[in-house]
Design goal:
Elements lengths: L7 H28 L10 H13 L5 E7 L3 E8 L4 E7 L18 H4 L6 H6 L12 E3 L7 E4 L2 E4 L6 H6 L2 E9 L5 E9 L6 E6 L2 H4 L25 H6 L4 H9 L2
Parallel strand pairs: 3-7
Antiparallel strand pairs: 1-2, 2-3, 4-5, 5-6, 7-8, 8-9
Helix pairs in contact: 1-2
Length: about 260
Amino acid sequence: MKQYRFDHKINQIVVDGILQGYKNFLEELREKQETMKISSAYAWVRGNHIDDQTATLCENVGIQYLYARAGYSWGYLQFTNEEERKMFIVKNGQYLDQTNVSKRKGLSTNSSNTQLNKNNYLYKLAQINHNVDLRRSIQLQLPLDGEIVVYENDTLIDIVDDDLQELQDKYDYFYIITYEVDRSGMISRIQSLLPSPIDGRAYEIEDLTKYIETSDVDLTNIDTSIVYQGQEKLPAEYPEAIQYDITTYDDHAKSESGD
């Protein structure tokens, strides 16, 4: 997987952006808790802070960004490097199922949840990787008419989406950069993943956690435990929010306990 890795400088800048955005989020969350009678909704803006700072720092190395939506209402940024034909997003790894990016992590295991959801925005973006050989056992072919199809055990799977054509023309690689927050409220892991359009798995390209130690962003004097204070559990009727970047103490506790 080494051939798919980002340059060390880009890795550091992306990690710095994630950490600085998280720091800004915690500082604003503390301010709102101290000045407002109710501020629980500010737990929903973490992804905005992280995307914002990642975009700001990445501009220094020529990486641009596009505004996009997950579902009908949740905005996020797509980061693009046209010279290297690469694109990535930053996502909370707490809810990313690396065995099936089209489903939210933590859902019960049954036939409907293990199948690929081809309407999911991550699975659609994974089609950018249609020429990346992540699984040698599956042959991916591009017919003369430009329609992208996969042959698996002589079974034809249609994965065409007209809305992706422009992205597929510009980029050859789509990555998901994930971060995870531990029970102390600290970002404890960051990964670079490449999702497969064939099986929906997100394959680890590189563990970027080591760049946390070399970052200039200092979180030592920040009260990270504030991220779990006063938060209400998210209602199930907001699947796009849950899927994108919303987290609660209950979800972390269940994840770490293995429930």
